[in-house]
Recover the amino acids of this structure.
Protein backbone atom coordinates (compact mmCIF):
# COMPACT_ATOMS: atom_id res chain seq x y z
CA UNK A 1 0.00 0.00 0.00
CA UNK A 2 1.20 3.49 -0.87
CA UNK A 3 -0.39 6.80 0.15
CA UNK A 4 0.40 10.21 -1.38
CA UNK A 5 -1.03 13.52 -0.18
CA UNK A 6 -1.95 15.65 -3.20
CA UNK A 7 -2.85 18.86 -1.35
CA UNK A 8 -0.37 21.67 -1.90
CA UNK A 9 0.97 23.35 1.24
CA UNK A 10 -0.53 26.80 1.53
CA UNK A 11 -3.02 26.10 -1.21
CA UNK A 12 -6.00 25.74 1.02
CA UNK A 13 -6.08 21.96 1.31
CA UNK A 14 -8.01 20.78 4.34
CA UNK A 15 -10.69 23.49 4.42
CA UNK A 16 -14.34 22.78 3.67
CA UNK A 17 -14.25 24.47 0.26
CA UNK A 18 -10.96 22.84 -0.70
CA UNK A 19 -10.76 19.52 1.14
CA UNK A 20 -7.60 17.49 1.37
CA UNK A 21 -6.96 14.92 -1.35
CA UNK A 22 -4.93 11.71 -1.44
CA UNK A 23 -3.80 9.09 -3.91
CA UNK A 24 -4.06 5.58 -2.48
CA UNK A 25 -2.42 2.61 -4.21
CA UNK A 26 -3.58 -0.89 -3.19
CA UNK A 27 -3.26 -4.23 -4.94
CA UNK A 28 -1.94 -2.54 -8.07
CA UNK A 29 -4.90 -0.14 -8.33
CA UNK A 30 -5.03 3.62 -7.73
CA UNK A 31 -7.83 5.30 -5.76
CA UNK A 32 -8.13 9.09 -5.84
CA UNK A 33 -9.69 10.31 -2.59
CA UNK A 34 -11.53 13.54 -3.48
CA UNK A 35 -10.83 15.86 -6.41
CA UNK A 36 -11.45 19.46 -5.27
CA UNK A 37 -10.71 22.76 -6.93
CA UNK A 38 -8.42 25.27 -5.21
CA UNK A 39 -9.96 28.75 -5.45
CA UNK A 40 -6.99 30.55 -3.88
CA UNK A 41 -5.74 31.51 -7.36
CA UNK A 42 -8.87 33.65 -7.84
CA UNK A 43 -7.43 36.15 -5.37
CA UNK A 44 -4.90 37.18 -8.03
CA UNK A 45 -7.60 38.30 -10.49
CA UNK A 46 -9.32 41.68 -10.38
CA UNK A 47 -13.09 41.27 -9.96
CA UNK A 48 -15.54 42.66 -12.49
CA UNK A 49 -16.39 45.52 -12.66
CA UNK A 50 -13.00 47.20 -12.44
CA UNK A 51 -12.98 50.25 -10.19
CA UNK A 52 -9.29 51.14 -10.14
CA UNK A 53 -6.74 50.50 -7.43
CA UNK A 54 -6.22 46.85 -8.33
CA UNK A 55 -2.45 47.18 -8.69
CA UNK A 56 -0.81 43.79 -8.96
CA UNK A 57 -4.05 42.01 -9.87
CA UNK A 58 -4.60 40.38 -13.23
CA UNK A 59 -7.24 41.96 -15.43
CA UNK A 60 -8.21 38.95 -17.48
CA UNK A 61 -10.47 35.91 -17.53
CA UNK A 62 -9.46 33.85 -14.45
CA UNK A 63 -7.79 30.50 -14.62
CA UNK A 64 -8.40 27.81 -12.05
CA UNK A 65 -6.15 25.56 -10.05
CA UNK A 66 -6.74 21.90 -9.28
CA UNK A 67 -3.51 20.47 -7.83
CA UNK A 68 -5.27 17.14 -7.40
CA UNK A 69 -6.21 16.83 -11.07
CA UNK A 70 -2.68 17.85 -12.09
CA UNK A 71 -1.07 15.33 -9.73
CA UNK A 72 -3.41 12.53 -10.82
CA UNK A 73 -2.60 13.21 -14.47
CA UNK A 74 1.11 13.23 -13.71
CA UNK A 75 0.77 9.89 -11.91
CA UNK A 76 -0.48 8.38 -15.15
CA UNK A 77 -4.12 7.89 -14.25
CA UNK A 78 -6.38 6.51 -11.54
CA UNK A 79 -8.73 3.55 -11.49
CA UNK A 80 -11.45 5.03 -9.29
CA UNK A 81 -12.32 8.26 -7.49
CA UNK A 82 -14.02 8.26 -4.08
CA UNK A 83 -15.69 11.59 -3.34
CA UNK A 84 -16.61 12.49 0.25
CA UNK A 85 -18.46 15.79 -0.34
CA UNK A 86 -19.95 18.07 -2.98
CA UNK A 87 -16.90 20.35 -2.78
CA UNK A 88 -14.67 17.31 -3.19
CA UNK A 89 -15.92 16.80 -6.75
CA UNK A 90 -15.57 20.36 -8.11
CA UNK A 91 -12.26 19.50 -9.79
CA UNK A 92 -13.55 16.34 -11.48
CA UNK A 93 -14.34 17.92 -14.90
CA UNK A 94 -10.69 19.00 -15.12
CA UNK A 95 -9.74 15.35 -14.75
CA UNK A 96 -12.39 13.58 -16.83
CA UNK A 97 -11.88 15.85 -19.84
CA UNK A 98 -8.26 14.67 -20.13
CA UNK A 99 -7.36 11.77 -22.45
CA UNK A 100 -7.32 8.49 -20.58
CA UNK A 101 -9.66 9.60 -17.78
CA UNK A 102 -13.02 9.53 -19.55
CA UNK A 103 -13.77 6.00 -18.29
CA UNK A 104 -12.55 6.51 -14.72
CA UNK A 105 -15.28 5.40 -12.30
CA UNK A 106 -16.37 7.96 -9.70
CA UNK A 107 -18.27 6.98 -6.55
CA UNK A 108 -20.21 9.58 -4.56
CA UNK A 109 -23.47 9.67 -2.62
CA UNK A 110 -26.63 10.62 -4.49
CA UNK A 111 -27.07 13.86 -2.55
CA UNK A 112 -23.45 15.00 -2.82
CA UNK A 113 -23.51 14.29 -6.57
CA UNK A 114 -26.66 16.39 -7.02
CA UNK A 115 -25.35 19.30 -4.97
CA UNK A 116 -21.92 19.08 -6.58
CA UNK A 117 -23.40 19.28 -10.07
CA UNK A 118 -25.39 22.37 -9.08
CA UNK A 119 -22.25 23.99 -7.64
CA UNK A 120 -20.24 23.27 -10.78
CA UNK A 121 -22.98 24.71 -12.98
CA UNK A 122 -23.18 27.81 -10.83
CA UNK A 123 -19.42 28.34 -11.01
CA UNK A 124 -19.55 28.11 -14.81
CA UNK A 125 -22.44 30.58 -14.98
CA UNK A 126 -20.68 33.17 -12.81
CA UNK A 127 -17.44 32.72 -14.75
CA UNK A 128 -19.33 33.84 -17.87
CA UNK A 129 -19.43 37.37 -16.46
CA UNK A 130 -15.67 37.58 -16.95
CA UNK A 131 -15.97 36.17 -20.45
CA UNK A 132 -18.62 38.75 -21.36
CA UNK A 133 -16.39 41.51 -20.01
CA UNK A 134 -13.00 40.46 -21.40
CA UNK A 135 -14.05 38.34 -24.37
CA UNK A 136 -13.45 34.61 -24.95
CA UNK A 137 -10.33 33.05 -23.47
CA UNK A 138 -7.53 32.28 -25.92
CA UNK A 139 -6.65 28.74 -26.93
CA UNK A 140 -2.99 29.19 -25.99
CA UNK A 141 -1.34 30.74 -22.96
CA UNK A 142 -2.60 34.25 -22.15
CA UNK A 143 0.01 37.01 -22.22
CA UNK A 144 0.08 37.42 -18.44
CA UNK A 145 1.36 33.81 -18.13
CA UNK A 146 4.31 34.41 -20.41
CA UNK A 147 7.92 34.68 -19.26
CA UNK A 148 8.98 37.33 -16.77
CA UNK A 149 5.49 38.81 -16.39
CA UNK A 150 4.65 35.95 -14.05
CA UNK A 151 7.12 37.23 -11.46
CA UNK A 152 5.03 40.39 -11.05
CA UNK A 153 2.03 38.50 -9.71
CA UNK A 154 1.21 36.94 -6.32
CA UNK A 155 3.17 33.90 -5.22
CA UNK A 156 0.12 31.66 -5.46
CA UNK A 157 0.30 31.95 -9.25
CA UNK A 158 4.05 31.52 -9.43
CA UNK A 159 3.64 28.28 -7.50
CA UNK A 160 0.64 27.05 -9.46
CA UNK A 161 1.81 27.73 -13.00
CA UNK A 162 3.99 24.71 -13.69
CA UNK A 163 3.97 22.79 -16.94
CA UNK A 164 4.09 19.01 -16.69
CA UNK A 165 6.08 18.12 -19.77
CA UNK A 166 4.99 14.50 -19.77
CA UNK A 167 1.29 15.33 -19.91
CA UNK A 168 1.16 18.75 -21.54
CA UNK A 169 -0.91 19.88 -18.56
CA UNK A 170 -0.92 23.41 -17.19
CA UNK A 171 -1.92 23.46 -13.52
CA UNK A 172 -3.69 26.79 -13.99
CA UNK A 173 -6.37 25.82 -16.45
CA UNK A 174 -9.35 27.44 -18.20
CA UNK A 175 -12.59 26.60 -16.45
CA UNK A 176 -14.53 23.62 -17.71
CA UNK A 177 -17.69 23.99 -19.80
CA UNK A 178 -21.28 22.77 -19.24
CA UNK A 179 -20.47 19.97 -21.68
CA UNK A 180 -17.49 18.93 -19.54
CA UNK A 181 -19.79 18.79 -16.52
CA UNK A 182 -22.23 16.50 -18.30
CA UNK A 183 -19.39 14.23 -19.42
CA UNK A 184 -18.10 14.16 -15.85
CA UNK A 185 -21.52 13.21 -14.47
CA UNK A 186 -21.63 10.25 -16.87
CA UNK A 187 -18.68 8.70 -15.01
CA UNK A 188 -20.40 8.94 -11.61
CA UNK A 189 -22.00 5.98 -9.89
CA UNK A 190 -24.23 7.40 -7.13
CA UNK A 191 -24.59 5.37 -3.95
CA UNK A 192 -26.65 5.42 -0.77
CA UNK A 193 -25.32 5.29 2.77
CA UNK A 194 -24.53 1.71 3.76
CA UNK A 195 -24.66 0.41 0.19
CA UNK A 196 -21.75 -1.89 -0.65
CA UNK A 197 -20.31 -1.68 -4.16
CA UNK A 198 -17.89 -4.20 -5.65
CA UNK A 199 -15.03 -2.65 -7.60
CA UNK A 200 -12.76 -4.63 -9.92
CA UNK A 201 -13.88 -7.88 -8.34
CA UNK A 202 -11.62 -7.57 -5.27
CA UNK A 203 -12.63 -4.38 -3.41
CA UNK A 204 -15.83 -3.62 -1.51
CA UNK A 205 -16.58 0.11 -1.22
CA UNK A 206 -19.09 1.58 1.24
CA UNK A 207 -20.10 5.16 2.06
CA UNK A 208 -21.27 6.10 5.57
CA UNK A 209 -22.44 9.42 6.96
CA UNK A 210 -19.74 11.80 8.22
CA UNK A 211 -22.34 14.00 9.94
CA UNK A 212 -20.83 17.23 8.63
CA UNK A 213 -23.11 18.03 5.71
CA UNK A 214 -25.93 16.62 3.61
CA UNK A 215 -24.54 13.72 1.60
CA UNK A 216 -21.00 13.91 3.02
CA UNK A 217 -19.47 10.52 3.59
CA UNK A 218 -16.80 8.39 5.21
CA UNK A 219 -15.48 5.77 2.79
CA UNK A 220 -14.54 2.21 3.72
CA UNK A 221 -12.34 0.24 1.31
CA UNK A 222 -12.14 -3.50 2.03
CA UNK A 223 -9.53 -5.40 0.05
CA UNK A 224 -8.26 -8.98 0.16
CA UNK A 225 -5.45 -8.10 2.58
CA UNK A 226 -6.42 -4.83 4.28
CA UNK A 227 -9.38 -2.67 5.22
CA UNK A 228 -9.06 1.12 5.15
CA UNK A 229 -11.41 3.88 6.28
CA UNK A 230 -11.04 7.32 4.71
CA UNK A 231 -12.26 9.77 7.36
CA UNK A 232 -12.71 13.35 6.06
CA UNK A 233 -14.05 16.29 8.10
CA UNK A 234 -16.71 14.88 10.41
CA UNK A 235 -18.85 15.70 13.42
CA UNK A 236 -20.38 13.19 15.82
CA UNK A 237 -23.85 14.76 15.94
CA UNK A 238 -25.40 17.20 13.48
CA UNK A 239 -28.33 19.60 13.70
CA UNK A 240 -29.36 18.88 10.11
CA UNK A 241 -27.45 16.00 8.47
CA UNK A 242 -27.58 12.32 9.38
CA UNK A 243 -25.40 11.62 12.42
CA UNK A 244 -21.89 10.20 12.10
CA UNK A 245 -21.93 6.44 11.45
CA UNK A 246 -19.53 4.81 13.93
CA UNK A 247 -19.73 1.43 12.21
CA UNK A 248 -17.41 2.81 9.51
CA UNK A 249 -14.58 2.89 12.05
CA UNK A 250 -14.91 -0.69 13.24
CA UNK A 251 -12.98 -3.74 12.06
CA UNK A 252 -10.49 -1.85 9.92
CA UNK A 253 -6.71 -1.94 9.65
CA UNK A 254 -6.06 1.73 8.83
CA UNK A 255 -7.95 4.97 9.43
CA UNK A 256 -6.86 7.80 7.17
CA UNK A 257 -7.82 11.25 8.45
CA UNK A 258 -6.52 14.80 8.34
CA UNK A 259 -8.79 17.10 10.38
CA UNK A 260 -8.56 17.41 14.16
CA UNK A 261 -10.33 19.53 16.76
CA UNK A 262 -9.47 23.20 17.14
CA UNK A 263 -7.46 24.40 20.14
CA UNK A 264 -10.48 26.10 21.71
CA UNK A 265 -12.42 22.83 21.55
CA UNK A 266 -9.57 20.79 23.00
CA UNK A 267 -9.56 22.15 26.55
CA UNK A 268 -12.95 20.82 27.59
CA UNK A 269 -12.33 17.58 25.70
CA UNK A 270 -8.93 17.16 27.39
CA UNK A 271 -10.55 17.36 30.81
CA UNK A 272 -12.86 14.54 29.79
CA UNK A 273 -9.92 12.67 28.27
CA UNK A 274 -7.91 12.94 31.49
CA UNK A 275 -10.74 11.28 33.39
CA UNK A 276 -10.35 8.27 31.11
CA UNK A 277 -6.59 8.55 30.58
CA UNK A 278 -4.58 5.44 29.72
CA UNK A 279 -0.91 4.71 29.30
CA UNK A 280 -0.12 5.09 25.60
CA UNK A 281 2.39 2.22 25.87
CA UNK A 282 -0.26 -0.11 27.30
CA UNK A 283 -0.92 -2.87 24.78
CA UNK A 284 -4.52 -3.03 25.96
CA UNK A 285 -5.14 0.46 24.56
CA UNK A 286 -6.14 -0.71 21.08
CA UNK A 287 -8.01 -3.74 22.42
CA UNK A 288 -10.32 -1.53 24.48
CA UNK A 289 -10.59 1.31 21.99
CA UNK A 290 -14.06 2.74 21.43
CA UNK A 291 -13.54 2.11 17.73
CA UNK A 292 -12.55 -1.55 18.07
CA UNK A 293 -14.35 -2.86 21.14
CA UNK A 294 -17.06 -5.34 20.22
CA UNK A 295 -18.16 -5.77 23.83
CA UNK A 296 -21.58 -5.17 25.32
CA UNK A 297 -20.69 -1.65 26.47
CA UNK A 298 -19.80 -0.42 22.97
CA UNK A 299 -23.08 1.47 22.65
CA UNK A 300 -22.42 3.25 25.96
CA UNK A 301 -19.01 4.39 24.72
CA UNK A 302 -20.54 5.72 21.52
CA UNK A 303 -23.08 7.65 23.58
CA UNK A 304 -20.18 9.11 25.57
CA UNK A 305 -18.58 10.36 22.36
CA UNK A 306 -21.88 11.80 21.21
CA UNK A 307 -21.98 13.96 24.33
CA UNK A 308 -19.28 16.13 22.76
CA UNK A 309 -21.70 19.04 22.31
CA UNK A 310 -21.19 19.21 18.55
CA UNK A 311 -24.75 20.46 18.08
CA UNK A 312 -24.42 22.94 20.94
CA UNK A 313 -21.26 24.44 19.47
CA UNK A 314 -22.78 24.67 16.00
CA UNK A 315 -25.99 26.30 17.27
CA UNK A 316 -24.04 28.72 19.48
CA UNK A 317 -21.93 29.74 16.49
CA UNK A 318 -25.00 30.26 14.32
CA UNK A 319 -26.75 32.14 17.13
CA UNK A 320 -23.79 34.52 17.42
CA UNK A 321 -23.89 35.19 13.67
CA UNK A 322 -27.62 35.77 13.91
CA UNK A 323 -27.20 38.28 16.75
CA UNK A 324 -24.68 40.23 14.66
CA UNK A 325 -27.09 40.20 11.71
CA UNK A 326 -29.95 41.56 13.82
CA UNK A 327 -27.69 44.30 15.24
CA UNK A 328 -26.72 45.37 11.73
CA UNK A 329 -30.35 45.41 10.59
CA UNK A 330 -31.44 47.45 13.62
CA UNK A 331 -28.76 50.02 12.83
CA UNK A 332 -30.13 50.38 9.30
CA UNK A 333 -27.44 48.34 7.55
CA UNK A 334 -27.79 45.45 5.13
CA UNK A 335 -26.14 42.04 5.50
CA UNK A 336 -24.22 40.00 2.90
CA UNK A 337 -23.80 36.29 3.62
CA UNK A 338 -21.65 34.33 1.14
CA UNK A 339 -23.01 30.79 1.00
CA UNK A 340 -20.63 28.17 2.35
CA UNK A 341 -21.92 24.96 3.91
CA UNK A 342 -25.47 24.47 2.68
CA UNK A 343 -26.72 22.95 5.93
CA UNK A 344 -25.42 25.87 7.98
CA UNK A 345 -27.21 28.30 5.66
CA UNK A 346 -30.48 26.39 6.10
CA UNK A 347 -30.09 26.47 9.89
CA UNK A 348 -29.18 30.16 9.78
CA UNK A 349 -32.31 30.94 7.76
CA UNK A 350 -34.44 29.21 10.39
CA UNK A 351 -32.86 31.12 13.25
CA UNK A 352 -32.97 34.46 11.42
CA UNK A 353 -36.67 33.93 10.76
CA UNK A 354 -37.39 33.18 14.42
CA UNK A 355 -35.35 36.15 15.63
CA UNK A 356 -36.89 38.60 13.18
CA UNK A 357 -40.36 37.42 14.17
CA UNK A 358 -39.70 37.73 17.91
CA UNK A 359 -38.16 41.19 17.39
CA UNK A 360 -41.03 42.36 15.14
CA UNK A 361 -38.49 43.31 12.47
CA UNK A 362 -39.57 43.09 8.84
CA UNK A 363 -36.78 42.97 6.27
CA UNK A 364 -36.62 41.01 3.01
CA UNK A 365 -34.25 38.06 2.66
CA UNK A 366 -32.87 37.47 -0.83
CA UNK A 367 -31.10 34.35 -2.04
CA UNK A 368 -29.42 35.26 -5.32
CA UNK A 369 -28.09 32.17 -7.04
CA UNK A 370 -28.43 30.46 -10.38
CA UNK A 371 -29.41 27.29 -8.52
CA UNK A 372 -31.32 28.80 -5.58
CA UNK A 373 -34.77 27.52 -6.51
CA UNK A 374 -33.52 24.01 -7.30
CA UNK A 375 -31.44 23.75 -4.12
CA UNK A 376 -34.32 24.93 -1.91
CA UNK A 377 -36.73 22.43 -3.48
CA UNK A 378 -34.14 19.65 -3.41
CA UNK A 379 -33.29 20.01 0.29
CA UNK A 380 -36.96 19.71 1.24
CA UNK A 381 -37.21 16.22 -0.25
CA UNK A 382 -34.35 14.40 1.53
CA UNK A 383 -35.88 13.03 4.76
CA UNK A 384 -33.73 9.88 4.83
CA UNK A 385 -30.53 11.98 4.65
CA UNK A 386 -31.46 14.24 7.59
CA UNK A 387 -30.73 13.95 11.30
CA UNK A 388 -33.10 11.92 13.47
CA UNK A 389 -34.71 14.97 15.08
CA UNK A 390 -35.90 16.18 11.69
CA UNK A 391 -36.94 12.71 10.61
CA UNK A 392 -39.02 12.39 13.76
CA UNK A 393 -41.12 15.37 12.70
CA UNK A 394 -42.71 13.15 10.08
CA UNK A 395 -42.08 9.69 11.56
CA UNK A 396 -45.73 9.20 12.56
CA UNK A 397 -47.06 9.81 9.07
CA UNK A 398 -48.42 6.94 7.05
CA UNK A 399 -46.85 6.14 3.70
CA UNK A 400 -49.70 7.92 1.92
CA UNK A 401 -49.52 11.07 4.03
CA UNK A 402 -45.70 10.98 3.79
CA UNK A 403 -45.96 11.12 0.01
CA UNK A 404 -48.53 13.91 0.25
CA UNK A 405 -46.26 15.83 2.60
CA UNK A 406 -43.30 15.70 0.22
CA UNK A 407 -45.51 16.41 -2.79
CA UNK A 408 -47.15 19.41 -1.14
CA UNK A 409 -43.76 20.82 -0.12
CA UNK A 410 -44.38 20.91 3.64
CA UNK A 411 -41.34 22.02 5.54
CA UNK A 412 -38.49 19.77 6.54
CA UNK A 413 -36.57 23.06 6.92
CA UNK A 414 -37.84 26.48 7.93
CA UNK A 415 -37.07 28.15 4.61
CA UNK A 416 -40.27 26.73 3.10
CA UNK A 417 -42.38 28.77 5.53
CA UNK A 418 -40.31 31.86 4.74
CA UNK A 419 -41.16 31.42 1.06
CA UNK A 420 -44.86 30.95 1.76
CA UNK A 421 -44.95 34.08 3.92
CA UNK A 422 -43.19 36.17 1.29
CA UNK A 423 -40.14 36.82 3.48
CA UNK A 424 -37.61 34.89 1.39
CA UNK A 425 -37.10 35.68 -2.29
CA UNK A 426 -35.19 33.48 -4.75
CA UNK A 427 -33.61 35.01 -7.85
CA UNK A 428 -31.02 33.65 -10.30
CA UNK A 429 -29.29 37.00 -11.00
CA UNK A 430 -28.89 40.50 -9.62
CA UNK A 431 -30.44 41.86 -12.80
CA UNK A 432 -33.58 39.70 -12.56
CA UNK A 433 -36.77 41.70 -13.17
CA UNK A 434 -38.48 40.45 -10.05
CA UNK A 435 -35.50 41.37 -7.89
CA UNK A 436 -35.58 45.00 -8.98
CA UNK A 437 -39.26 45.17 -8.05
CA UNK A 438 -38.84 43.45 -4.66
CA UNK A 439 -35.55 45.12 -3.65
CA UNK A 440 -35.68 47.06 -0.41
CA UNK A 441 -32.96 48.07 2.02
CA UNK A 442 -31.99 47.19 4.66
CA UNK A 443 -32.07 43.57 3.60
CA UNK A 444 -30.31 40.25 4.06
CA UNK A 445 -28.67 38.73 0.98
CA UNK A 446 -27.29 35.22 0.57
CA UNK A 447 -25.24 34.47 -2.54
CA UNK A 448 -22.40 32.13 -3.62
CA UNK A 449 -19.04 32.94 -2.08
CA UNK A 450 -16.48 31.87 -4.75
CA UNK A 451 -13.80 33.75 -2.83
CA UNK A 452 -15.65 37.07 -3.32
CA UNK A 453 -14.25 37.32 -6.86
CA UNK A 454 -17.23 36.03 -8.83
CA UNK A 455 -20.96 36.61 -8.93
CA UNK A 456 -23.37 38.87 -7.00
CA UNK A 457 -21.07 39.15 -3.96
CA UNK A 458 -18.67 41.39 -5.91
CA UNK A 459 -21.35 43.91 -6.87
CA UNK A 460 -22.95 44.00 -3.42
CA UNK A 461 -19.56 44.52 -1.77
CA UNK A 462 -19.01 47.56 -4.00
CA UNK A 463 -22.47 48.84 -3.13
CA UNK A 464 -22.19 48.54 0.65
CA UNK A 465 -18.45 48.81 1.33
CA UNK A 466 -18.61 52.47 2.41
CA UNK A 467 -21.54 51.97 4.81
CA UNK A 468 -20.22 51.11 8.27
CA UNK A 469 -23.66 49.85 9.28
CA UNK A 470 -23.53 46.99 6.77
CA UNK A 471 -22.22 43.55 7.67
CA UNK A 472 -20.25 40.96 5.69
CA UNK A 473 -20.30 37.47 7.23
CA UNK A 474 -17.11 35.51 6.51
CA UNK A 475 -15.75 32.22 7.71
CA UNK A 476 -13.10 32.59 10.46
CA UNK A 477 -10.48 30.61 8.53
CA UNK A 478 -10.32 33.41 5.95
CA UNK A 479 -9.25 35.89 8.64
CA UNK A 480 -5.73 34.70 9.43
CA UNK A 481 -4.72 37.66 11.59
CA UNK A 482 -7.89 37.51 13.65
CA UNK A 483 -7.44 33.78 14.12
CA UNK A 484 -3.82 34.31 15.18
CA UNK A 485 -4.92 36.64 17.98
CA UNK A 486 -7.83 34.41 18.99
CA UNK A 487 -5.54 31.41 19.51
CA UNK A 488 -3.65 33.36 22.18
CA UNK A 489 -6.71 32.81 24.39
CA UNK A 490 -7.04 36.49 25.25
CA UNK A 491 -9.70 39.15 24.85
CA UNK A 492 -8.87 42.01 22.49
CA UNK A 493 -10.74 45.23 23.27
CA UNK A 494 -10.49 48.98 22.70
CA UNK A 495 -10.11 51.42 25.58
CA UNK A 496 -9.61 55.17 25.11
CA UNK A 497 -8.89 54.59 21.44
CA UNK A 498 -6.17 52.00 22.08
CA UNK A 499 -6.17 48.22 21.69
CA UNK A 500 -5.55 46.19 24.83
CA UNK A 501 -5.18 42.48 25.55
CA UNK A 502 -6.70 40.85 28.62
CA UNK A 503 -5.28 37.43 29.44
CA UNK A 504 -7.68 34.55 29.97
CA UNK A 505 -7.89 33.07 33.44
CA UNK A 506 -6.94 29.67 32.10
CA UNK A 507 -4.59 29.19 29.16
CA UNK A 508 -4.85 26.26 26.76
CA UNK A 509 -3.01 23.10 27.69
CA UNK A 510 -0.18 23.13 25.14
CA UNK A 511 1.00 19.73 26.33
CA UNK A 512 -1.80 18.29 24.19
CA UNK A 513 -0.51 20.09 21.11
CA UNK A 514 0.46 16.79 19.51
CA UNK A 515 -3.28 16.17 19.14
CA UNK A 516 -3.74 19.34 17.09
CA UNK A 517 -3.14 20.03 13.45
CA UNK A 518 -3.31 23.73 12.75
CA UNK A 519 -4.70 25.60 15.74
CA UNK A 520 -1.75 26.33 18.02
CA UNK A 521 -0.46 29.89 18.48
CA UNK A 522 1.55 31.00 15.43
CA UNK A 523 4.13 33.61 16.55
CA UNK A 524 4.91 34.62 12.95
CA UNK A 525 1.31 35.71 12.43
CA UNK A 526 0.49 36.84 15.95
CA UNK A 527 3.15 39.53 16.33
CA UNK A 528 2.45 41.37 13.03
CA UNK A 529 -1.28 41.23 13.73
CA UNK A 530 -0.84 42.92 17.12
CA UNK A 531 1.78 45.39 15.89
CA UNK A 532 -0.64 46.62 13.22
CA UNK A 533 -2.93 47.61 16.08
CA UNK A 534 -0.18 49.71 17.67
CA UNK A 535 0.77 47.20 20.34
CA UNK A 536 4.46 46.61 21.10
CA UNK A 537 4.67 42.91 21.90
CA UNK A 538 7.49 40.51 22.63
CA UNK A 539 6.90 36.78 22.71
CA UNK A 540 8.96 34.17 24.49
CA UNK A 541 8.71 30.85 22.70
CA UNK A 542 9.32 27.72 24.75
CA UNK A 543 9.79 24.12 23.75
CA UNK A 544 6.07 23.44 23.60
CA UNK A 545 5.62 25.50 20.41
Amino acid sequence: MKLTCLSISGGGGGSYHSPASHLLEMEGLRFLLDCPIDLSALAAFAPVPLTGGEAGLIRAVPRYWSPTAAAAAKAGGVDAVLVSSATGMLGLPFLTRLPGFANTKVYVTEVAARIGKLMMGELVEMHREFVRYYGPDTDGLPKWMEGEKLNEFPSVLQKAVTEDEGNGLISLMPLYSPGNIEECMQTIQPVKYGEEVCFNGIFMLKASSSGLELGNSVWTIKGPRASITYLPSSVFVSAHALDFDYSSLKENDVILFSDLSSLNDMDEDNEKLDEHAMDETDSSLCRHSVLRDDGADADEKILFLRNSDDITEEIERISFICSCIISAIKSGGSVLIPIGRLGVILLLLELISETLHSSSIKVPIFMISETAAEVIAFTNALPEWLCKSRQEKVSLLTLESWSMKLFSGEALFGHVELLKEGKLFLFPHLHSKGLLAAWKEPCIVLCPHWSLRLGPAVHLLHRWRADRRCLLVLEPRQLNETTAVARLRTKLFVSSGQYQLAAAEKQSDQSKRHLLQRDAVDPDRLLPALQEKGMMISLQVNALF
